[in-house]
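Support request, please re-run this one:
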Amino acid sequence: MVGQASACQPRAGGKVFYRGAGKKPTLPPSIPASPLHSSRSSYTCPMPWLEGLRHDLNHSFRVLRQSPGFAIAAILAIAIGIGANTAVFSLVNAVLLKPLPFPHADRIVQFEVSYAGAEDPIASPKSFTFYGQRATAFQDISAYWLDHVNLTGGPNPELAPAAIVTADFFRLFGAPVLHGRTFTAEEDRPAGGHVVVLSYGLWKRHFGANAAIVGNRILLGDTPYGVVGVLGPFATEEFEQSPELWLPFQIDPSGTQVDSRLCYIAGRLKPGVALAQARAELPLLTEAARRASPGSVRPNERRSIEPLRDALVGNVRPSLLILLSSVGFVLLLACANVANLLLVRAAARTREMAIRAALGAGRGRIVRQLLTESVALSVIGAALGLALGWTGMRAFLGLYPRAPLSTGGVNPINFPRIGEAGAGVALDWRVLLFTALAAFLTGILFGIVPALHVSRGDLNTPLKESTGRSGAPIGRTRTLSMLAVSQIALALVLLIGGGLLIRTSIALRSVNPGFDPRNVLTMQTALAGTRYEHAPAADRLFTQGIQRIESLPEVESAAASCCLPLETVWQLPYIVQGRPLNGRFHGFAGWTFVSPHYFEVLRIPLLRGRAFTDRDTAAAPGVVIINQTMARMGWAASDPLHDRLLIGRTFGPQFEADPARQIVGIAADVRDQRLDRRPRPIMYVPIAQVPDAVKAFEFPLLPAAWIVRTRSGSPQSGGAISKILRSVAGGIPVARVRPMEQVAAESTARTQFQTVLMSFFAAAALLLAIIGIYGLTAYSIRRRQQEIGIRMALGARPEDVTRMMLLHGLRLIFLGVIIGLLSAFALARLIAGLLFGVTARDPLVFAAVPVLLTAIAVFAVWVPSRRAARMNPIEALR
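Re-run finished. Output below.
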């Protein structure tokens, strides 16, 4: 017994043995110094449970030091299981669990509109005015939108993300003001002046943290803005990118002015107002608006609200929960693996436990000691797993691409709330608590079965056995077999899931995007707030810029567009002129304005008709090219080249000046969203024929895209091209110089990320399962060592011994494969939403994976079986 003599008092009639005066009490030399008989000791402690726990831990660490091989194998298995779970849970925590960093975040909601069964959070300034003036269940209602502006003052111009917000935004989201102030109500009105608030990061990086910048002016594009304030460090999870600048929205409160801008709308529920109560108010307001202004609300339109966190998470919840379930399987495999190791090790400790029981340790005391050893193993493995898991997740997130230079709040392609390069994924108390609970529960889970097996054994038999005999109860062997079968089954489920995602990844690589991305460079410039925001100047910029770029010797051809394939494409209604209408329009299609050579640069085939030329100017008749999908959907029985289109007439007044456009060509389909989405109808119009009002609407929303085909695809070409563009555009910064192949890869970033993670987890599960089946076979050989020696002494050949052990392993492998196949078949529908180009019950995966797993498992059984066949029968019998 270890402890201070003053802390432990003798029981009545008990004895305390001392080695010398003033020394700690100790047991007689004839009794082993083990805590397992402390319940029979002759003294008591004020906190016996704490003293007993300390003894159990000391003994556990001493036992582990005496078996380093076993300890290392068990700790590594636990580290793999808990590390994988910690990594994925840190991502789940950042996206789903972590509260928003705003005051009273649980009461912040986002306004949405449901039309034709689809929820749309994008609204108009008119809707913001409607909610602000009529809704009574909310306060601090704010409109916001993410734009990009050119910070042109100074020697280093840059394209900076700018949040366009109403005055209540800062109060709603709790923005701290470091210097100066935010916008006033007057500044947030039309003609309220040009004012700006700086972010903390931009203030430090671009202005040297000089507080005197407040009250001065900075140049955004061609317009001077007065700096009225600087914000402190501020989390902005409602935006895909952290804004560097904050500009007033300046919405007309009367709603009489035409405002074609877009926005997100959020507000806070008033104290005492429940979410259901606020939702009940919105249909009444919608109906009142429909009566007050017929035609202002579309038929079947429904307005609703969602908690902001749910709105930000969007459709990624199923993907994350599937990943978390998958790594849960890995943890179960690790538990089964360590339980196998403990059961095998228990065979060598049977006599030890029997002796301890004979010396007075009860069954509960033995179980407690063995569970303490298991939890100690789990805690050490969890500490290592936490480090491995966190390091691995940071490495994965570092490779995760940035979001496209998109508008608005959240890009639906990427994981929300994780920030750039995963900066929003933190090692906070939730992750640490999850790891601690996982360590404790898994220690109990994989330790309870071996502990119960050891503690309930017969005392006499182990004490009578010679030390040279090897054996184990039949029940323990059966338990080992069940654990091995479960490992094979769980590994098969994960391998099939990984195989399906790998098939998806391969299918994505083989998808024809409709264009040739090789040797194509892309870059973007923001024209909002510059002299090129107006149509004539923008047309000159596009013409001169393309001519100068094509003069470079390494450039084959160049073009400009409003947007890039696989990124943001506007959807506009169209009307086929002369065709009867059943509603307000004939259909919706993507709308992209492009310069001549656009189809040549991207090598998009023209199936019929002609491409745009330099003669398609604003003075020429309006023309349009449609894609194959649109031609097939709208002209199944006629020739589209004979028809004319009216585009966007019901979308907004700015499109009223758009001319009727003759369809002059049919282009091949291009994937305009993601590689794993089918092509949608698309309309292409010449950039020179886009009306001034439409360009004034478009340029503030999306940066202009430049697309250049080079002869070699060398990244060095981007520097020369950017230099020319800055020169032609008068110093406007050029942003996001990327190969087109990178744009294509970023469109499937989430799918590739999930595939890599699932494949890693499946590989870990396979490794654990193979170790488990190998360990079981090795244990079985050890247990049957004398039997094998007798068989060989009686004439059994080595191949007979190998066959016998292989048959034993094969029975377990086939049983695990069958259970795993049935489980995977039942669970396949859960992963269906993550797949592309492959069914959830793909025959190839369901056939190949079991064959692969069986072959590897058979090899794991064959290795120890072959070693057993070479056993010397004399040594085995001895």
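The CA atoms of residues 347 and 526 lie 73 Å apart. The first helix runs from residue 48 to 66.
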